[in-house]
Amino acid sequence: MSKLLRYEQETIINFNAGEKKAIVYTADPAVMRNLDSLVIEFPDTFKCIKVNDISKTYEMPKSSVTYRKPRRLSEEQREQARNRMKIINGATS
Questions:
Q1: What is the block-wise mean pLDDT of the chain (93 residues), using blocks of 10 residues?
Q2: Which pLDDT score is estimated for 92?
Q3: What is the 8-class DSSP label of residue 20?
Q4: Is residue 26 a contact partner of residue 32, using CB atoms and an 8 Å limit?
Q5: Is-contact 66 22, C-beta < 8 A?
Q6: Count of CB atoms situated within 10 Å of the CB of 59
Q7: Alpha-carbon gap, residue 85 to 88, rounded angstroms
């Protein structure tokens, strides 16, 4: 695959109200890796439908495209997460 500038590594999600499938075009290698793993793990749901030297196009159910609210943590939750990471990082050292 050709190397693109980070600015050029776009992802476009296309779907409409009349169809049940979404089409995802991407030139971002990280997105490609994630979608490729979904294609391997769930071949009946996710499909790679087009490949060229710099991008891939995938087909998936619209229900797989999600929108989520940002997560809000209290200071107590943030401190608990910080302590858990200290334990995890200390165990791997």
A1: 83 96 96 97 97 96 93 93 91 66
A2: 66
A3: S
A4: yes
A5: no
A6: 15
A7: 5
